[in-house]
Structure formats: C-alpha cells, structure tokens
C-alpha cells in the first residue's frame, strides 16, 4: 500500500509539471507605411518541455505552432536574440511559426510583420503537449 501511494504521488506530481504555455507579453509597433511589427513572448511555466530531445531529433511529433490570426502577415520569425535583433525567418506559412520545443521554465519570442493595423488580431498557441490557447493582442505601446 505504501508503494502504491508513492507511485500515485509521483504520477500526480509529474502530471502537474507537464507543459503549461501562456503569453507573457505582446506588443504592436508601427513601422510606417501601413506596416506593423507584432511581438509576442510565450512562456512555459512548468518544468517539462513541450518536446523531448529524442522527439525533436527524430521528428516524432509535430512542432509547436504559434499563429497570428486576424492580420495580413507579410513575414514571420522566431526571435533568437532580442538584444542583437537576431531572428530566424519562417519562409513557408509565415503566419504560423513552428517552434521545435519550448523548454521548461523558459520563454520563446516570436515576431510578425503585418500589413494593416493588427489590433483585432489574436495569437494562437497550438502545442501537442502544451495545449491550445487563444490570446487577444494587447497594444502595450498605446497603453496609458
């Protein structure tokens, strides 16, 4: 009975630490000429990553999708280093950025360049382990 209790406690604890994704922040910046830059930061608040290294190396499960809907996307990219403005452009389907994994207790930044004002757009996170989340954009540049 003691062993069954320990096994159940471990299983519940492990289930609690499965990936939980949320959008930490988003912002919209005007670039001029009816173009806007949309940035979003997706945070995994739990310990387990959305994909294991084995999964990523052998492409077992599809990657995480972070999508922008409700705006005309010109280009989409993953921000690798925001201090040096280093990005990795997604050429195919730029509105849906594919992220191989989001590590536990870490964040991923994404950016889109859109035509027209994206204030009514929303960010959609679709992850096999991390779940499905819709997040309306918040324009932090125009907040008071």
Could you please describe the fold and organization of this structure?
- The chain has one domain: Immunoglobulin-like (Sandwich).
- Strand 4 (72-81) and strand 5 (86-90) form a beta hairpin.
- A 5-stranded antiparallel beta sheet has the order 1-2-7-4-5, with no helix packed on it. It has a 4-stranded antiparallel beta sheet with strand order 6-3-8-9, with no helix packed on it.
- The termini are far apart.
- Helix content is 15%, strand content 48%.
- It contains 2 helices and 9 strands, in the order H-E-E-H-E-E-E-E-E-E-E.
- The chain is elongated, with a radius of gyration of 18 Å.
- The chain has helices at residues 2-16, 53-58, and strands spanning 21-32, 35-44, 64-69, 72-81, 86-90, 96-99, 106-115, 122-127, 131-136.
- By secondary structure, the protein is mainly beta.
Helix and strand composition category: mainly beta
What is the CATH architecture annotation?
A: Sandwich
Instruction: Name the average pLDDT.
Output: 94
CATH superfamily: Immunoglobulins
One letter per element, helices H and strands E, the order comes to HEEHEEEEEEE
The gyration radius over C-alpha positions equals 18 Å
For the biggest sheet, the summary is: 5 strands, antiparallel
CATH fold-level assignment: Immunoglobulin-like
Tally of DSSP β-strands:
9
> How far apart are the termini?
58 Å
Helix content: 10-25%
């Amino acid at each position: 009975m003691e062993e069954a209790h320990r096994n159940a406690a471990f299983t519940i604890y492990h289930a609690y630490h499965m990936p939980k994704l949320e959008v930490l922040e988003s912002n919209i910046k005007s670039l001029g000429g009816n173009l806007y830059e949309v940035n979003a930061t997706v945070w995994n608040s739990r310990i387990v990553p959305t994909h294991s290294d084995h999964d990523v190396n052998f492409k077992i499960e599809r990657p995480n999708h972070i999508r922008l809907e409700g705006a005309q996307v010109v280009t989409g990219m993953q921000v690798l280093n925001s201090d040096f403005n280093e990005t990795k452009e997604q050429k195919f389907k730029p509105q849906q950025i594919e992220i191989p994994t989001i590590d536990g207790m870490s964040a991923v930044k994404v950016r889109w360049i859109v035509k027209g004002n994206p204030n009514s757009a929303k960010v959609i996170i679709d992850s096999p382990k991390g779940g499905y989340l819709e997040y309306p954009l918040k324009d932090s540049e125009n907040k008071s």
